[in-house]
Amino acid sequence: MVMALDGIKVLDLSRLAPGPHCSMLLADFGADVTLVEAVPGASAKLGTTGVRRSEAAERAAAFNALGRGKKSIALNLKEEEARKIFYRMAEGADVVIEGFRPGVVKRLGVDYDKLSTINPRIIFCSISGFGQTGPYANLVGHDINYIAIGGALGVTGRPGQPPAIPVNLLADFAGGGLTAAFAICLAIIAREKTGRGQYIDVGMSDGVLSLMTSAFSHYFSTGQPIRPGEYLLNGAAPFYNTYRCSDGRWFSIGSIEPHFWENLCRVLGTEDLLPHQFDQAKWPEMIERFAGIFATKTADEWMAVMSQYDICAAPVLEMENVVTNEHNLARGMVIELDSPIGKVKQIGVAPKLSDTPGMPRSTAPLIGQHTDEILGGLGFTAEQIADLRSRGVVG
């Protein structure tokens, strides 16, 4: 089966979520991704190939979806011999991904300026919290900090309450990993036109701000900033909100358009509210009224009712219900992969391409699992590999 990124070779130096998510997306569509990982510590119990093998390690790798479809080589890039190995790998690579703090790859001697002299077609993607330039470039941070600077945290939650902290989706995975994968694919297309690689600077706070484009369009056009729980799309409106049901679960309503609003009111028996959809003075009273109505049925009962009509509605699925939901299963979004510990479940591939679909091909490797294979492909003998491993150059 032909895959969209067949033949694209990626070297992934990253460690935390954004980089591995980026390279997982590329691997799912056929890219040949090699993780360049740190050599395990000298006290690690290594097997004959240098790979840490234990039941816990194999289980962790099997369920590590971010590592699926990839190979692993362990290199101590602080050693000159290891850097030379990396340079040889870079000669035939298309993409390098790194997620260190700005300046680290330069100190290690594996930055874009160095690699582009070895391979002018190389595409080098740096993923960092605040980007490579600007006053915040060298600050440490995590998802919560990047969504704070990017504006997303400031619009979530309820009035007078602390901001609602989402799971690390917006910065790490959307603003970081997904944005980086998109940028890399753009650079691959551009290289077909120019013959040259290029450097990509992905700042996660930039990615978050890009996701906020529509919200800021509202601000720029009206001069009115969006506050938590005071905007139609963040909890102020009764028709775009969540309500607790009789079983303690929650149900979401998104009936913005008038015809959806009309259907909702008829199902709930609140036809008297039809003329007042956008009367913000009445919204608190309407929310309280809706809350009382939704408390009379379970979430599944409400879904059974709502799904018979043209109403934007869905139960708020808890994780255990997400992975058994009939729609998610029908869309192939929960899959099983073979692994050394047996079949394991993972989340499937989101974009459905008709001619070159994505397909996870293996579970994540153990650290250094493919060191011997990769070095052998570069021309190293078994004796040379053993010597490099004994000196901690590779693992």
UniProtKB/TrEMBL annotation:
Organism: Tepidiforma thermophila (strain KCTC 52669 / CGMCC 1.13589 / G233)
Gene3D superfamilies on file: Crotonobetainyl-coa:carnitine coa-transferase, domain 1, formyl-coa transferase, domain 3
GO terms, molecular function: transferase activity
Keywords: Transferase
Pfam families found in the cross-reference section: CoA_transf_3
Name of the molecule in the record: Crotonobetainyl-CoA:carnitine CoA-transferase CaiB-like acyl-CoA transferase
